[in-house]
Design a protein that fits this description.
Length: about 140
Amino acid sequence: MDKFDQFVNELQDKIFDEAREAYGERGFDRWRNPRHNGRMDTADSSARVTGDCGDSIEIFLKIENDRIQDAAYVTDGCGTSSICGSFAAELAIGKDLDAVADINGDVVENAIGRLPDDDRHCADLAAAALQEALSRYMQRTVSGE
């Protein structure tokens, strides 16, 4: 291995160690292997919310019999936004609409394990996108659309 390859490997190890420290093992795994990422063409509802930081998270929901059958997200934001969007989608899947209404930033953060204080707003952003998608679905259902 030449010096450049050694440098790259050491740098990657350092980045991974810092990410593990910042997010814990669950968050680190999701950072490396996002789940539920991508647009959902068959969504019954979706919503895109932009936070004060400029990041946006869009959540997609597939709903049957008042239960979230599937969920997905996309983000134009940082790694933390991706982690939070992934967990928000996962937390919604399989739950009835009332249970999904209770998912907030604290619930998302607790599912991850921990977030750096400066990134805490990403959990709130993911939860806000989820709540907006749920609200839009409920508004259409009530209005008979």
